[in-house]
Amino acid sequence: MLGSDDSERREYASHSAAGEDENTGSQVAPIVRLKEVAVTTGEEDKDMLLYWKAKLYCFDKEGSQWKGRGTGNVKILKHKNTGKVWLVMRQGKTLKICGIAPGSAEVLNC
Length: 110
Hints:
By secondary structure, the protein is of the alpha+beta class. It has helices at about 1-20, 105-110, and strands at about 45-60, 65-80, 85-90, 95-105.
């Protein structure tokens, strides 16, 4: 009786493994068609002066400890017309802004 269960298990395992590689030929049409949308980040009219990856921490005064705000890309951007400089940090996967600060061109020697 135990021998028949083992052979059934082996037969099932061989069928399920073969089924993974099979191409059924069926195609699924998308339910919703999405239109391409132009996304503006606000960085279009700025020149990138510097770019690097970093981790952002903020000091929590109540807990007296540093807390992580995110890991991502840091850019120093200079506006083409006004010459104002900004430090912008975006999270790696979502590209949400997690840090932004104004700077001065004199300090950066731009």
